[in-house]
């Protein structure tokens, strides 16, 4: 996938200027998810669940080499063909060979952020293969030719009239068609695709090393159909998505559902144990492609590795006041919002993703929502510090910070500037940026005396 993260500020401004309705659509949907998560967390001892999940993932990541070898062994014992892909090019080669060997003409695909990361759809289309995204949200954005805007809700930026216009243009449905009627049209198209596809592609929420079990969560039933009806199933799995034991699913399945959508458990959970045996229904061939693509390097980063605990639940996106303004498209890569701001620099390099660590107010809501306690605010500061050290910060910002440092280290300069600043017009008059902040608040009124004078008077009393 082409990375456009450097354009984040310009793309965010352009989107809000050209599509102002996106803010309302994204804010409404994310607040709905966020309220559901809070209710779901209140039903359990959320702090204890989150701490236990953090420890399990930390143990997994600390012994990742062992669990990867164990997972490969268990998968092969079940008849699964295991592949290793260091980068997208290797993943493409593996998929190309499978497509050629089976003469694949049509693919049904479950929602998977990793396959977005690898650019699977463009590859298949270049091979002349017909690809159907089968998650309804993914199907909508496939029709529009757009990338996902949210990890869990890829079409979260669309309002009902947008979808009505899209289906009217593509399928001739009335412009006022109901959501049920629109869903029925999509269901008819996708049912035909499920029944005629040669290959099904999915990601995996988890891969259990102990048993070689692929665990997939969903609410629409499309993943089960994509992985069970075609004669060949290929699952792309990031190497950090493992769990050590089968029993760990009892914690991670409900915790992920609560964090993502506020559900106690997703509507469907599929546990795939390998290809169908003689007399059974299901794919005759199952492939698991274990993908690195920068994850090993990130694991060796002593400050940034904790982001690999991520479950891709999207809870931090729902909690983020910055993400709500635009949705995910301006972030310029697969992973957006707070997790994208700390994961993308680790996977792609800070030079290609520089503005993203600054796309946050550091309010800490993302940390409170995260089911595995990833310290996102701390990681944002880490990447910002590295940006300054590597000279990526703008010249005006470096000059301003140097001047600020000089003033703060000199009592005489500090007193001079504190007096001078009190005589200037109010900040909201100088900076239009502050207008929205002050619309709901009274004007800023500087103290008639600086703090050091007040302090001296207090000590005299």
TrEMBL record:
Pfam families: Fer4_8, LUD_dom, LutB_C. It comes from the Bacteria. Gene3D superfamilies: Alpha-helical ferredoxin, NagB/RpiA/CoA transferase-like. Transmembrane segments: none annotated. Keywords: 4Fe-4S, Electron transport, Iron, Iron-sulfur, Metal-binding, Repeat, Transport. InterPro entries: 4Fe4S_Fe-S-bd, 4Fe4S_Fe_S_CS, FTHF_cligase-like_sf, Helical_ferredxn, LUD_dom, LutB/LldF, LutB_C, NagB/RpiA_transferase-like. Residues 301-322 form the 4Fe-4S ferredoxin-type domain. PANTHER family: LACTATE UTILIZATION PROTEIN B (PTHR47153:SF2). This is Iron-sulfur cluster-binding protein. It comes from Thermus antranikianii.
């Amino acid at each position: 996938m082409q990375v456009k993260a450097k354009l984040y500020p310009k793309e965010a401004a352009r989107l809000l200027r050209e599509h102002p309705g996106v803010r309302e659509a994204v804010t409404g949907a994310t607040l709905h998810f966020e309220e559901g998560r809070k209710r779901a967390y209140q039903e359990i001892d959320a702090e204890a669940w989150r701490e236990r999940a953090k420890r399990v993932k930390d143990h997994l990541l600390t012994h990742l080499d062992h669990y990867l070898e164990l997972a490969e062994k268990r998968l092969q014992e079940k008849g699964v063909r295991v592949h290793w892909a260091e980068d997208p090019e290797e993943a493409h080669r593996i998929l190309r060979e499978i497509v050629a060997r089976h003469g694949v003409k049509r693919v049904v695909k479950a929602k998977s952020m990793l396959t977005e990361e690898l650019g699977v759809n463009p590859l298949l289309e270049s091979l002349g293969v017909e690809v159907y995204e089968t998650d309804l949200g993914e199907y909508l954005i496939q029709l529009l030719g757009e990338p996902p805007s949210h990890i869990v809700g890829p079409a979260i930026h669309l309002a009902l009239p947008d979808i009505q216009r899209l289906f009217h243009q593509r399928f001739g449905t009335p412009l006022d068609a109901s959501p049920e009627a629109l869903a029925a049209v999509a269901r008819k198209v996708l049912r035909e695709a499920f029944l005629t596809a040669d290959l099904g592609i999915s990601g995996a929420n988890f891969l259990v090393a102990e048993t070689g079990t692929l665990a997939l969560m969903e609410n629409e039933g499309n993943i089960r159909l994509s992985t069970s009806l075609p004669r060949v199933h290929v699952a792309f799995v990031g190497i950090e998505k493992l769990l050590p034991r089968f029993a760990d699913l009892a914690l991670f399945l409900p915790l992920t559902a609560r964090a993502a959508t506020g559900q106690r458990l997703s509507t469907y959970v599929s546990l795939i144990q390998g290809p169908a045996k003689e007399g059974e229904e299901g794919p005759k061939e199952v492939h698991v492609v274990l993908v690195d693509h920068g994850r090993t390097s990130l694991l060796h980063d002593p400050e940034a590795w904790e982001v690999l605990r991520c479950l891709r639940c999207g809870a931090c996106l729902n909690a983020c006041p910055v993400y709500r303004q635009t949705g995910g498209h301006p972030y310029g890569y697969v992973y957006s919002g707070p997790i994208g701001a700390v994961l993308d620099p680790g996977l792609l390099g800070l030079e290609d993703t520089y503005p993203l660590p600054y796309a946050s107010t550091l309010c800490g809501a993302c940390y409170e929502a995260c089911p595995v306690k990833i310290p996102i605010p701390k990681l944002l500061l880490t990447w910002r510090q590295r940006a300054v050290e590597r000279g990526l910060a703008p010249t005006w910002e470096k000059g301003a910070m140097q001047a600020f440092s000089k003033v703060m280290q000199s009592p005489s300069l500090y007193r001079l500037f504190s007096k001078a600043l009190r005589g200037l017009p109010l900040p909201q008059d100088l900076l239009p940026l502050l207008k929205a902040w002050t619309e709901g608040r009274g004007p800023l009124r500087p103290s008639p005396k600086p703090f050091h004078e007040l302090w001296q008077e207090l000590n005299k009393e």
